[in-house]
């Protein structure tokens, strides 16, 4: 199973609509989107336009402290207008005037790292999960995913309880090792699945979140290593690889004996269609659309 990750923080309806359309045409049936009603409707519309009869949607949220619910902010008094953020943002979330397009920002933090003056900071943008998640499940979303790389256990318990109350087909836990060792990662997962039925939970093994900038084995290595940790624990869960995933992920995972349920690709999936995605005449330019679908198809096929 190939899952397109549009970005848990991506709230730009037109961008998501175009991404879903391209990848639906390329053979993808699973789409990871932000917990936003307008984004959900845009994604559904795109899948329908592409002729996909049974699209599957995963809605992602995060706990406090997880980068997936952060946005960038520029302090104008410190900004020197050098343009580093504009040139390096992988999601085109910076305007030429050097202002952040908050709807497009996915919280990767690349702009902050490239800023020479420290003018860019990250802030958390949370949502009312008790209002939005039941709506999503009632309208056909099959997977609710919680990104849990943060230290706020109270927020984790609160949001995980709401996900369980919503009773989606699958509940997904997205976790990496940026802050925790292997033991704490597994202890956290075991605690969360203790009262769930076997194999109704997905663990998205996030190697290095938002790191799929190129198509090498090295880039996807940590995603495979993270999946191996989950697999070796013999947990009654489905494993999905993420975080640095690309066209080499499936091959490396198979060589390492990983029995994965799916591969979720975000950064690399978006990067390879970016030049077509941003064309002003996107919907009318049949040649560009064909090239975009061709590039996406190769990636989807590589993940089988």
Structure, explained:
- This protein is an alpha/beta fold and 304 residues long.
- The protein folds into 2 domains: 2-64 and 129-302, Aldolase class I (TIM Barrel); 69-124, Alpha-Beta Plaits (2-Layer Sandwich), CATH 3.30.70.20.
- The chain has 12 helices and 10 strands.
- The protein has helices at residues 13-25, 37-49, 84-88, 110-114, 129-138, 153-166, 182-193, 217-232, 249-255, 267-271, 274-277, 286-302, and strands at residues 2-5, 30-34, 56-62, 70-74, 120-124, 143-147, 170-175, 201-206, 238-242, 262-265.
- The chain has an 8-stranded parallel β-barrel, surrounded by 6 helices. The chain has a two-stranded antiparallel ribbon with strand order 4-5.
- It is globular, with a radius of gyration of 18 Å.
- The mean pLDDT is 95.
Could you list some keywords that capture this structure?
304 residues; TIM Barrel; Alpha-Beta Plaits; 2 domains; two-stranded antiparallel ribbon; 40% helix
């Amino acid at each position: 199973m190939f899952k397109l990750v549009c970005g848990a923080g991506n709230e730009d309806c037109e961008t998501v609509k175009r991404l879903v359309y391209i990848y639906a045409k390329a053979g993808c049936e699973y789409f990871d989107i932000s917990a936003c009603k307008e984004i959900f409707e845009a994604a559904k519309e795109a899948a329908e336009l592409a002729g996909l009869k049974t699209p599957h949607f995963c809605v992602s949220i995060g706990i406090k402290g997880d980068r997936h619910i952060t946005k960038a902010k520029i302090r104008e008094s410190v900004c020197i207008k050098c343009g580093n953020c504009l040139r390096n943002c992988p999601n085109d979330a910076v305007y030429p005037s050097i202002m952040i397009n908050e709807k497009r920002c996915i919280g990767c933090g690349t702009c902050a790292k490239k800023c020479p003056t420290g003018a860019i900071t990250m802030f958390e943008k949370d949502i009312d999960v008790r209002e939005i998640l039941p709506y999503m499940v009632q309208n056909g979303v099959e997977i609710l995913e919680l990104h849990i790389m943060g230290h706020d256990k109270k927020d984790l318990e609160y949001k995980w309880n709401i996900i369980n109350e919503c009773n989606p087909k699958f509940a997904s836990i997205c976790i990496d090792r940026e802050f925790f060792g292997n033991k704490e990662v597994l202890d956290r997962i075991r605690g969360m699945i203790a009262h769930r039925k076997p194999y109704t939970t997905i663990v998205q093994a996030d190697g290095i979140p938002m790191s799929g900038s190129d198509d090498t084995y090295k880039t996807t290595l940590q995603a495979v290593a993270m999946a191996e940790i989950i697999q070796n624990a013999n947990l009654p869960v489905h494993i999905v690889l993420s975080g640095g995933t690309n066209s080499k992920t499936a091959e490396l995972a198979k060589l390492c004996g990983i029995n994965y349920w799916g591969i979720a690709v975000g950064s690399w999936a978006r990067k390879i269609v970016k030049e077509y995605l941003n064309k002003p005449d996107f919907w009318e330019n049949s040649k560009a659309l064909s090239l975009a679908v061709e590039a996406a198809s190769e990636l989807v096929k590589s993940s089988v």
